[in-house]
Amino acid sequence: MAGGKENARQKMINLMYLVFIAMLALNMSKEVLMTFGEIDREVVKSTKSLKESNNAAIQVIKNSAKNDSLQWYTAYQPISKISEAAKELTEFINKNDNELITPYEVNDVTYQSFKRPILEKENAFGRTIDGAIPEKVGDYEVMDNSGAYDEMLFTGDYVNDENTGYTAAGQEFVRLVNNFRDTAIEEISNSDISRDTTKNKIWNDSKSGLIRLVNQSFNTDVVKVGKADDKIKSWLHFNFEGFPEIASITKLTLMEEDVENVIQTMISTINEVILGENLTSLRAIPMNVNVFYENSKLEGTVALGKYDETFVASKVKIKNGNAPMKEYRAIDVMENGEVVLEKLNLNVGSAGAKQLTGEIIFVRTENGVDVEKSIPIDHEYFVNPPLANVSNKDMNIVYEDIENILNITMPGVSNDNIQIVSPPTIKPGKNGEFIMTNQKKGRTGKVSIVVKDKLTNFTSPPVVFDVVAVPDPFASFSQKGDKFSANQILTGKIGGTFNNERLDNSLQLRVSEFKVRIGLRNLGVVRNTNGAFNDRLKSEIKKARRGTQITISDIVFSSSKIDKGRKSLFSQNQVVLTVR
């Protein structure tokens, strides 16, 4: 639009373009405002439910502190003081007789609350909210002005802690946020919620996570907004100054939710610590102790209902199948609250169903006397015989008279203990592989591979493979096309393929010899050139005229993997090359 003299029509187009951009910006702003409003509406609902749940849980802990002071009194103290600080903050945000707020009118009603109510409009389009059609809905699109909260919170820019630029309402709001954070951190840091040393250790291990949650949600440090050290804003200016009214309301709603989340996490952690070691409700749960192969080691874990690295018993008793009951020190066989079965060094034995029984024993002090509490173990698992797995690395079948590379394994049996009972044509190779050589089709055209575990003398059922003869390959020429220049023919080579990639890769054929005819002249046999033309033939090919046919026939192939006693392979076709 810049540069050059514009006529009236062009000016009109430019003006329309600017109006269009402005309309797009206006619509985008409305979408953002609408999003803030929808977030606020949903979070208000969830926060209300969370607050009711927290209040009920706190009342239960309070009653427990009265009825069972030995166990619950010290646990109630930190949550009581933190909830009081939370109540001060949320009441300041929501109460409608806040003396620090100048009265204002919304929806024809006078308010005096820190958190301004949502503007409403008639539900002209019959919008459904929470399964109902209300008469009025939030008019979020018009709540785009920052003036209400700018006037409520600020008298100017932030300079330092002595000159904050806050109104009395702003100062009190920040004080209450800081008070909630500092109270929560202090109560968590300095509390011991139980007289039981084990429970207190678990509680102390949980403190860092709780304190981190509080600091992340209620950090009110100044915010650096430029490269220079003095380019800073207060937390309140950074989060509330200049923002649309609906955005500030939503931030206050999210803060209330953060308050309730801190309290809920505190309640959950305290309950877990105090009630977590309820031995009567725990069960021993064997995990990954289901199926084994003969004579392998017993593996898996026996968990105590939950993961807890501090949850260590006094001793463990295990009876595996028909073996006698064995006793272990818990410290030797438990990790992360679980019995690690590998540490028992037990063999699962022969095939069949087995019963894993025993008990996990705890010593607890009751009325000054050590008492044993036990959790029973009762689990059935199965032991399978180590059936052999046999596969041919190169092919899906076994070929007669050539080297076949086989992978042979038995679950639970090391390679060193695998013995081939039959056929005798299989010998150990490299890297745990086995090589079958000089295998014949025999009368049935099949070979049965029988594998044995040398350690236990267990013999696997036979694995049957078909034995087939290696087919004769097809001859090919290294250059592509129907007609060739003399130079292409001179530099080309005769080769062979089975049209089977795995068989080609396995045998890697070489050309032993072939016959050549140029036109009607037979030029004899070429040997030991691996498919290339010798100098005598190259001289004759150079003399050949356009259209002359060069016929390669009686091609013989060999391979280092074909047994020495086997005859060579012969081509199923001949190669005809036409000179152009």
Detailed description of the structure:
This protein is flat. A hairpin with a 2-residue loop joins strand 27 and strand 28. Mean pLDDT is 82; it is low at 21-28. It has 4 domains: 32-276, no CATH class; 281-382, Immunoglobulin-like; 389-468, Immunoglobulin-like; 474-579. Helix 1 runs parallel beside helix 7 (245-276) and helix 2 runs antiparallel to helix 7. The strands form 9 sheets. Strands 25, 27, 28, 29, 30 and 31 form a 6-stranded mixed β-sheet that branches. The protein has a 5-stranded mixed β-sheet with strand order 8-15-14-10-11. Strands 7-9-13-12 form a 4-stranded antiparallel β-sheet. Helices cover 35% and strands 26% of the residues. By secondary structure, it is of the alpha+beta class.
For the secondary structure, the number of strands is 31
Considering DSSP H and I runs of 4 or more, what fraction of the residues is helical? Answer: 25-40%
The number of helices is: 11
Average pLDDT score: 82
Please state the overall shape, judged from the principal axes of the Cα atoms: flat
| Largest β sheet strand count, sense and barrel closure | 6 strands, mixed
Terminal CA distance = 66 Å
The count of domains is: 4
Question: Would you tell me the structural class of the helices and strands?
Answer: alpha+beta
Percentage of residues in strands = 25-35%
Provide a brief overview of the structure.
By secondary structure, the chain is of the alpha+beta class. It is built from 11 helices and 31 strands. The protein folds into 4 domains: 32-276, no CATH class; 281-382, Immunoglobulin-like; 389-468, Immunoglobulin-like (Sandwich); 474-579.
